[in-house]
Design goal:
Blueprint: H1 7-31, E1 43-45, E2 47-48, E3 59-63, E4 66-74, E5 79-86, E6 92-98, E7 108-109, E8 111-112, E9 119-125, E10 133-140, E11 143-150
Length: 160
């Protein structure tokens, strides 16, 4: 018996991929989460982009349209000026540096650089970009955005 002459098998081999594609999109339509605006009083997690994982000199944190950007500037005696810029006005930003599983520095309030709430800064004393992590919470329109990133992005760039 030749398989190509069997009309049932031929129709099934053509219809099966179409049904698979249709079911994939139908499940996403009925079950998938649709984007919605931030609700007052809720918390949302920020995800660190790939530039946070290497010596890039910048770290972007994002959740949907909400984006924060961290950039370090090294000074004398191990001082680092950490600057945060946002696309949306922020009410406040708190950052904590974590050096290990048990060593956590107290949270510090960033100070606003601009009147519009888009730029913030903080002086960090003697950070260790290889071991330390940053945890931050930003407030905007009564919603809270939090994130946790490694400080490797703050290492001085080499090979330039």
């Amino acid at each position: 018996m030749n398989i190509l002459k069997n009309k049932h098998l031929l129709i099934a081999s053509l219809v099966a991929p179409l049904l698979a594609l249709m079911s994939y999109f139908a499940i996403d339509f009925f079950v998938g989460e649709s984007p919605h605006p931030a609700e007052e009083g809720r918390s949302y997690q920020l995800v660190g982009k790939s530039n946070c994982r290497y010596e890039s000199g910048k770290c972007d944190l994002q959740n949907g349209d909400f984006r924060l950007s961290l950039s370090p500037q090294w000074g004398r005696n191990g001082q680092m000026l950490l600057t945060l810029t946002s696309e949306f006005p922020l009410d406040g930003v708190v950052i904590s540096r974590v050096a290990g599983a048990t060593d956590e520095h107290p949270p510090e309030q960033m100070r606003a650089i601009s009147d519009d709430g888009l730029s913030w800064s903080l002086n960090v004393d003697n950070p260790d970009p290889v071991k330390d992590r940053l945890r931050l919470v930003a407030s905007s329109n009564q919603s809270f955005w939090y994130g946790d990133v490694a400080m490797k992005f703050a290492l001085p760039r080499t090979g330039q």
